[in-house]
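Translate structure to sequence.
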C-alpha cells in the first residue's frame, strides 16, 4: 500500500530522532534568526538597481537590453550555479560553501563603487549573483535540517526575509543615491552581507559536526518527470518577479509618475511579498493541500498583471499590492511544496537545488525579453500581458500537485 505524505513525514521524523538523518539541535528562535539574516541579503543587490537605472544608464550609456542584463544575469547564475553550489557543498561542506558565497556577494556589491562602464557593472552583477546562487540552492535544505518539525514556519520566515530584503533595496536605493550617487546606492549593500558572513561563521564555529548530506547526486532528478514539472512551475511563475524588479520603476516613470513614487511602488511590491511569503505557508498548513493557497496566490498575480497591462494609472498601488501578495505567497509555498515531496532533509534539499537550478534559468528570461521588446519599439504593457498568460497557464498546472501524488511521483528517489 502506498504511504501517505503524513506517514512519510512521521517516518522521517523517527529517522531523524534515531540518527539516520543528522541535523543540528538549534533553538527555534536562533535558527529562524539565522535564516532571516542570510535571506535578507539575497535581493538588495537586484532591487537597488531599478530605482537608479536611469541615472546609471545616463552615466554609463547602457541600452535597454544591456541594462536588463544587470537583473537577468544573476538569475541565470542562480540557475546554472545552483547545481555547482550543491556539488561544492558536497565537496567542502555546507558551512564553507555558504561562507564563500556570502563573501562573493559582498565582493560583488563592493565592486560597484569602483567599476567603470557597463561591462564592469555586469561583471559585478555576475559576482554577486554567483554568491546568491550558491546560497539559494542550499538554504531550503538547511531550513528543513535545522527545523524538521517547523518546515512551513522556516520557509515562511526565510522567504519573507528574502523578499523583505528586496524591499530594503528598493526603498534605500533612492535615498542613498541622493546622498552619494548611484554608486553608493548599489555598493552600500556590502555591509549587511559582511554582517551575515560574520554571524554565519560564528554560528558554524559553535555548531557540532554534521553529516554532509549534499554528497548525493542531482542527476536522478533529471530523470524524474515531477522534478521537471516543479522546475517549470517555479521558473515560469517567478519570471514575473524578475520582470517587475527590473522594469516596474522605469515603466511608471515612463507613465509620468515621479522617480521616488516609482521606486516606492517597487518597495511596496516587496513589502507585500514579504508579508504574503510569511502568511501563506502558515495558513496553508491547516489544510495540508497547498494547491488552494497556490491558486489564490496565482489569482492575485493575474489581477495585478492585468491592471498593469490595461489600466496602469487607474490604481497603481492596488495592482502592485496584488502582484506582491501573489508573488510572495507563491514563492514560499512553491519551495514548501518542493520540500514536502521527499521526507528527509538531504533528498528534499537536493530536489530544491535542482528545481531552483532549472527554474531560475527560466526566471532570467523575463527581464531580458522585456528589455528586448522595449528596445524594438514595443510597450511595457505587452510584457505584462505575456506574463499574465504564463500565470494563467500555471493556474492549470497547479492541479497536478496533489499531496497524494508525492510518493508516486518521487518513487525511486
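Result:
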Amino acid at each position: 500500500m502506498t504511504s501517505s505524505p503524513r506517514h512519510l513525514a512521521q517516518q522521517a521524523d523517527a529517522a531523524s530522532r534515531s540518527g539516520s538523518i543528522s541535523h543540528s539541535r538549534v533553538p527555534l528562535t536562533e535558527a529562524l534568526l539565522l535564516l532571516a539574516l542570510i535571506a535578507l541579503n539575497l535581493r538588495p543587490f537586484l532591487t537597488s538597481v531599478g530605482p537608479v537605472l536611469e541615472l546609471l544608464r545616463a552615466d554609463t550609456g547602457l541600452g535597454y537590453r544591456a541594462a536588463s542584463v544587470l537583473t537577468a544575469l544573476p538569475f541565470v547564475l542562480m540557475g546554472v550555479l545552483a547545481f555547482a553550489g550543491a556539488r561544492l557543498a558536497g565537496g567542502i561542506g555546507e558551512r564553507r560553501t555558504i561562507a564563500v558565497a556570502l563573501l562573493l556577494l559582498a565582493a560583488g556589491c563592493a565592486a560597484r563603487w569602483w567599476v567603470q562602464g557597463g561591462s564592469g557593472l555586469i561583471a559585478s552583477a555576475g559576482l554577486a549573483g554567483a554568491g546568491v546562487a550558491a546560497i539559494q540552492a542550499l538554504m531550503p535544505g538547511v531550513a528543513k535540517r535545522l527545523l524538521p518539525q517547523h518546515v512551513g514556519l522556516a520557509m515562511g520566515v526565510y522567504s519573507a526575509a528574502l523578499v523583505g530584503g528586496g524591499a530594503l533595496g528598493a526603498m534605500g536605493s533612492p535615498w542613498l543615491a541622493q546622498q552619494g550617487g548611484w554608486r553608493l546606492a548599489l555598493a552600500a549593500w556590502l555591509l549587511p552581507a559582511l554582517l551575515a558572513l560574520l554571524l554565519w561563521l560564528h554560528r558554524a564555529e559553535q555548531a557540532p559536526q554534521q553529516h554532509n548530506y549534499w554528497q548525493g547526486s542531482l542527476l536522478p532528478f533529471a530523470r524524474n518527470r515531477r522534478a521537471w514539472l516543479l522546475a517549470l512551475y517555479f521558473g515560469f511563475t517567478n519570471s514575473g518577479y524578475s520582470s517587475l524588479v527590473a522594469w516596474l520603476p522605469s515603466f511608471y516613470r515612463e507613465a509620468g509618475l515621479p522617480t521616488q513614487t516609482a521606486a516606492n511602488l517597487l518597495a511596496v511590491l516587496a513589502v507585500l511579498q514579504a508579508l504574503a511569503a510569511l502568511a501563506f505557508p502558515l495558513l496553508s498548513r491547516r489544510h495540508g493541500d497547498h494547491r488552494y493557497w497556490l491558486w489564490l496566490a496565482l489569482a492575485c498575480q493575474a489581477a495585478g498583471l492585468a491592471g498593469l497591462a490595461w489600466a496602469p494609472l487607474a490604481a497603481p498601488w492596488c495592482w502592485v499590492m496584488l502582484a506582491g501578495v501573489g508573488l510572495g505567497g507563491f514563492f514560499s509555498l512553491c519551495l514548501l511544496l518542493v520540500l514536502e515531496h521527499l521526507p528527509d532533509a538531504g533528498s528534499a534539499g537536493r530536489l530544491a537545488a535542482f528545481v531552483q537550478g532549472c527554474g531560475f534559468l527560466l526566471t532570467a528570461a523575463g527581464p531580458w525579453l522585456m528589455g528586448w521588446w522595449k528596445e524594438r519599439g514595443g510597450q511595457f504593457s505587452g510584457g505584462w500581458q505575456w506574463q499574465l498568460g504564463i500565470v494563467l497557464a500555471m493556474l492549470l498546472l497547479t492541479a497536478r500537485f496533489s499531496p497524494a501524488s508525492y510518493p508516486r511521483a518521487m518513487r525511486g528517489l
